[in-house]
Amino acid sequence: MSPEVTALASGLEEPPAPKRTRFEEAWRLFRRNRMALAGMVIFALFFFSAVIGLALTSGSRPRFDPSLVRLQEKLRPPLSMPHVESLRPEELPAFGIYLFGTDDLGRDVFARMLQGAWVSLTVGFVAVGISVAIGIFMGGLAGFYGQRHIRLEQLLVTAVLLTGAGLLAAGLRSWGALLLAAGHAWLFWSISPWGLQRRKTLPAGLRFFRKNTLMVDTVIMRFVDVMLCFPSFFLILTVVALLPASIYNIMIVIGLTSWEGTTRFVRAEFLSLREQDFVAAARALGVGNLRIIFRHMVPNAVAPVLVSATIGIASAILTEAGLSFLGFGVPPPHATWGNILSDGKRFIFDAPWLTFIPGAAILIVVLAFNLFGEGLRDILNPRLREKH
Amino acid sequence: MTESLETVLSVEGLKVYFRSEDEVARAVDGVDFEVRRRETVCLVGESGCGKTVSALALLGLVPRPPGEIAGGRVRFCGEDLLDRNEAAMETVRGRRIGMVFQEPQTSLNPVFTIGEQIAEPLRIHLSLPEPEIRERSLQLLNDVGIDSPGQRLADYPHQLSGGQRQRVMIAMALACGPELIIADEPTTALDVTVQAQILRLINRLQQSHGMSVLYITHDLGVVSQIADRVYVMYAGVIVETGAVEQVFRNPRHPYTQALLESLPSRKKRGRRLYSIPGTVPHPAYKPAGCPFHPRCPRAIGACREQVPGMCGFDDHHVARCPVAAGRNAADWCTYGYPSN
Question: What does residue B79 show for φ and ψ, rounded to 5 degrees?
Fold first, then answer.
């Protein structure tokens, strides 16, 4: 019977689908969207100029010196030649020309823009990296384990630990240490083999502490709602005003205030993915929860996250520029697009390039990221795909 | 009897309930069946009668909550499966019991290649070295009749046809050499020609690998082709069981009779096809007594009051219908099935 069956099977098999990898397929669709393609090209240019800019503007004797003051050369328009006779040889701009002009201290705006590009790039990527990491974690938790409940004992031990930490901070050392030690002892006991065994056979009085309180999903998603209620720019302003001015603080604060969208996305994706047949099939093959989450669900959920991350980078760059413009950003000698714009606004009628160049740069980069992100969304979403 | 030694899977009085705020849906309400070694057993019934839920309950895959196993025993090769915790169940699923699902289109993960997905059970359960995993994967694809398996390993699910995907799913279920395969309507989503190929494939693999197959379907045509024995389910209970010839030639339960009557056949050409009056009861609001009595042409007063027991007809052919068996009210529930 078996040779006949195999012959039949191979004879009747449908011809294979055309050979294209997912990447090729995506690229074919992406190429048709001109705006998105332009966005990607500008993104690539921005990326390379920021990386090269970092190399050229840092070090003890940089090729482009963004902080070299030439007072005799102030407010020169773009593309003007330096007065060679009034400058020392090491003060000459690179290529012998002020490509973007000079500012009110005679600093080369091109060099300053290059230095600022790196700031924008890192702020964009690090802030979004932080927010995406938090978003995937919180969203995944809410989406996969959301139906579980937080038990009363867990709330109590959290309260004990927090009170302990508070007492320590307030100077009541011995009480604080006692509470912290008690909290940790309970934690270790509850995950130890003895603790896990006794869980089922608790006396009735203690079982009260294992009562279910809130659902994990409720806690996380309502916290997201609360975070979204704050006007985030003013929240960032407040935090930045309290913290020492540094580019890292800004990245972290932007990251910590922009994870809510990703959380909602990932939760929604997980809720729909966990009902998918392939997840059920993986379970029936004996795949464990962690492997299902990381091997089967996360790779399927990254597409929308990627899109929102790309658009998130644009808004992080915009936020950083806004902070620098208001003077809360990176401290002065260091150039960012926001503070070039801010410094230049006093001379807007005498030297319009000082506001126009960084403004246009911000506009173009943010636009490019948005177009790129929307292009990605189109190719990653099969329902939108048919329109192209 | 020597047969009982050969029993791979036995389910006794399995009950699976789904609880919501104000009602309890008794999806599976006391189901008994057994699967012996190298045997194909079919579980037949309309959609919503609890076939799939029973199968998921065997593997501990009923979502809890809202589902709960309200009673019964599942013995697999002598071990109780319902007693086991999640970690112990993971060593049974995929390794000793394989499962094939209804929708090959969506049962494969779209972002991984076929090779990676076939390798997964081998990696998890057998932890083989890489070259051996590749060799086994090729062998498996070959076994299920996929040509040029070397190329297919690098393909993504969307590059395969529905029949090929179902073959891959079968290969994954077979990967660790399970004793039992549960096939949950594996051919429902496929064309009739492909369906025939898949059925023959399952039959051939069962013989060459010496497995047992629990085949879940609503398609009586499929049952007559592949089954050794058949269990007919209605509203969460087994209503008739026997060897496939017995049940098809000589159906005893009015439900089975009605099901067979509603199949088109050459004899009935030109006549309006029979359909069973009424609808399947909602699992939360089942009628008292025999669940089929509101739709049954032979129902009598007693059918409304007491749940009938299994009544023996021929050798191993039993049906849950005392009316058909000609019993009186006194041994209405008790007569018949030895274990009941």
Answer: -105, 145
How crowded is residue B239: how many other Cβ atoms within 10 Å of its Cβ? 26
Mark yes or no for CB contact B94/A285 under 8 Å: yes
Question: How many folded domains does chain B comprise?
Answer: 1
Number of domains in chain A: 1
Q: Quick one: tokens of A150?
A: 């937080």
Any chain B CB within 8 A of the CB of A61? Answer: no
What's the gap between Cα B324 and its chain centre? Answer: 26
Q: Per DSSP, what are the bridge partners of residue B230?
A: B42, B242
Q: How far is A200 from chain B (nearest CA, A)?
A: 14
Min Cα distance B76 → chain A (Å) is: 16
The rounded distance, in Å, linking the Cα atoms of B333 and B329 is 8
Instruction: Kindly list the residues from chain A whose CB atom is less than 8 angstroms away from the CB atom of residue B91.
Output: 286
| Chain B contacts in chain A segment 289-308 (CB below 8 A) | 291, 295-296, 299-300
Residues of A in contact with B61 (CB under 8 A): 280, 283-284
Nearest 5°: the CA angle A83, A86, A92 is 65
Q: Which residue range forms the structural domain that includes residue A219? A: 33-385
Q: Is residue B137 part of a domain?
A: no
Which of A278, A380, A385 best probes binding to B when mutated, by most B CB atoms within 10 angstroms? Answer: A278
d(CA A321, CA A330): 10
Is A169 within 8 Å of chain B by CB? no
Burial class (CB in 10 A: 0-12, 13-18, 19+), A313: buried
What residues of chain A lie within 8 A of the CB of B163, using their CB?
A: 13-14
pLDDT in tens, A315-343: 999 998 888 888 888 887 788 898 898 88
> What range does the domain containing B326 cover?
257-331
Peptide bond into B291 cis (omega under 30): no
Residue of A nearest to B88 (CA): A286
List, for residues A238-295, the tens digit of each pLDDT value.
888 888 878 888 889 899 988 998 999 899 999 998 888 888 888 888 888 888 888 8
Structure tokens at B191: 């064309």
Calpha distance B241→B32 (Å, rounded): 10
* A230 within domain boundaries: yes
Residue with tokens 């938790």: A141
